[in-house]
């Protein structure tokens, strides 16, 4: 009987001790900061987060560019870095850097217009100088059929380069689209579409996102299900060499804004089109939307008037955690010109603010200097329409 009493007493004691221990553990655990991956839990209610985004237009690889990057046509060694050496420091100073990758990586033989295929080094160099998001849905995405679509995806994946717009099959698209980017506590959904693949049927099971409003609407619904702070749509649209958006671009832009897109980034015309800041009412909330109708060329061999350069646009996304709102801020644009030297032929992307008064780095021929100045004047005149909402970037 005494043994039974002792067992009972010991049991009660242990239960009491364990209860106290459990209470202390639970109390202390509740005071620890959350380890959730949800960035919303990592910021004070009254704080803000800010991310900088930069976008450029068409990165093309015409054969004169490819040849100029190699000293030996029989080797597979190419050096594209000098092309971008003067603009690279500007890229590294931002968080998300977007480029329209308008070629394929299908291996030799390399080719330019009308069926593009570039050395892998072209893409890797773009990434090396700073671009960390490639948008691939454009009219040259299917130039090398299914092999071009698949190998381009594989080569970018092999270097962990984020990309969107083209997919190996429907399953991959369902898994990876829309692309969700998380940086500094801000979640961005990125969408990408092209008006065409130049009449080339997209080979099955490959996918190049085309501009279809039913598809886009479904994609936007899926994007919103992930509760992004902002939605960016990169659109390959418009008419080549036209300096103003056409009727179709305007209709598509209206559709995108009505369906919740915050920022529209345009490419394809190969020339600069205006920038627009538009106030819209989306589900009872007033928003400031950014529309970049066309960024022009980033790098190409094109020398037609207005196509021998392009535009870099930089802006901030600011998230107010207390208000659960995100807005566009600090919109800056910077025109740049592609200088093509002779004997030997070399290409250089030159930021205007840095080189318009520089007479020492490059000894340009008078006709080249004249072309450069014309591009500067034309670009500024075309863009200086809304200085209240954005302005030209002229250095750090």
Count of structural domains: 2
User: Ranges with pLDDT <50 over ≥5 residues?
Assistant: 1-9, 11-41
Total of helices: 11
The fold-level CATH name of the largest domain is Purple Acid Phosphatase, chain A, domain 2
Distance between the termini: 88 Å
Account of the 3D structure:
The chain is an alpha/beta fold and 396 residues long. It folds into two domains: 2-32; 47-392, 4-Layer Sandwich (Purple Acid Phosphatase, chain A, domain 2), CATH 3.60.21. The chain contains eleven helices and 17 strands. It has helices at 2-29, 63-68, 81-84, 88-92, 120-128, 145-158, 170-176, 213-225, 247-258, 352-355, 366-383, and strands spanning 48-59, 96-101, 133-135, 162-164, 166-167, 179-183, 186-194, 207-208, 230-236, 263-267, 275-282, 285-292, 297-299, 309-320, 325-341, 346-351, 390-392. Strands 1, 2, 3, 4, 13, 14, 15, 16 and 17 form a nine-stranded mixed sheet that branches. Strands 6-7-9-10-12-11 form a six-stranded mixed sheet, covered by helices on one side. The model is unreliable at 1-9 and 11-41 (pLDDT under 50).
Secondary-structure map:
Layout: H1 2-29, E1 48-59, H2 63-68, H3 81-84, H4 88-92, E2 96-101, H5 120-128, E3 133-135, H6 145-158, E4 162-164, E5 166-167, H7 170-176, E6 179-183, E7 186-194, E8 207-208, H8 213-225, E9 230-236, H9 247-258, E10 263-267, E11 275-282, E12 285-292, E13 297-299, E14 309-320, E15 325-341, E16 346-351, H10 352-355, H11 366-383, E17 390-392
Parallel strand pairs: 1-2, 1-13, 2-3, 3-4, 7-9, 9-10, 10-12, 15-17
Antiparallel strand pairs: 1-14, 5-8, 6-7, 11-12, 14-15, 15-16
């Amino acid at each position: 009987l005494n043994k039974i009493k002792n067992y009972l007493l010991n049991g009660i004691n242990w239960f009491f001790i364990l209860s106290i221990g459990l209470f202390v553990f639970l109390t202390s655990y509740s005071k620890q900061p959350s380890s959730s991956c949800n960035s919303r839990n990592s910021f004070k209610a009254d704080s803000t987060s800010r991310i900088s985004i930069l976008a450029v237009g068409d990165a093309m690889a015409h054969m004169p560019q490819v040849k100029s990057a190699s000293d030996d046509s029989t080797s597979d060694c190419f050096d594209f870095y000098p092309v971008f050496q003067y603009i690279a420091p500007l890229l590294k100073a931002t968080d998300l850097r977007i480029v329209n990758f308008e070629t394929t990586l299908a291996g030799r033989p390399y080719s330019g217009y009308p069926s593009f295929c570039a050395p892998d080094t072209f893409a890797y160099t773009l990434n090396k100088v700073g671009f960390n998001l490639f948008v691939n849905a454009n009219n040259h995405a299917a130039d090398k059929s299914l092999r071009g679509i698949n190998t381009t995806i594989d080569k970018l994946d092999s270097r962990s380069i984020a990309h969107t717009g083209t997919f190996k099959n429907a399953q991959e698209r369902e898994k990876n689209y829309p692309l969700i980017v998380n940086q500094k506590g801000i979640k961005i959904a990125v969408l990408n579409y092209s008006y065409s693949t130049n009449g080339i049927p997209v080979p099955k099971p490959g996918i190049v996102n085309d501009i279809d409003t039913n598809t886009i609407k479904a994609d936007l619904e899926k994007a919103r299900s992930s509760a992004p702070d902002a939605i960016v749509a990169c659109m390959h649209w418009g008419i080549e060499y036209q300096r103003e958006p056409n009727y179709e671009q305007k209709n598509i832009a209206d559709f995108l804004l009505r369906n919740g897109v915050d920022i529209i980034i345009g490419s394809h015309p190969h020339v600069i089109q205006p920038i627009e800041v538009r106030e819209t009412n989306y589900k009872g909330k007033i928003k400031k939307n950014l529309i970049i109708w066309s960024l022009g060329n980033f790098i190409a061999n094109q020398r037609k008037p207005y196509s021998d350069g392009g535009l870099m646009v930089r802006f901030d996304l600011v998230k107010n955690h207390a208000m659960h709102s995100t807005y566009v801020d600090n919109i800056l644009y910077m025109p740049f010109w592609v200088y093509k030297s002779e004997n030997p032929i070399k290409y250089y992307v030159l930021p205007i603010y840095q080189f318009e008064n520089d007479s020492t780095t490059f000894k340009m021929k008078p006709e080249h200097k004249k072309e450069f100045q014309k591009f500067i004047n034309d670009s500024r005149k075309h863009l200086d329409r809304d200085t209240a909402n954005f302005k030209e970037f002229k250095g750090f």
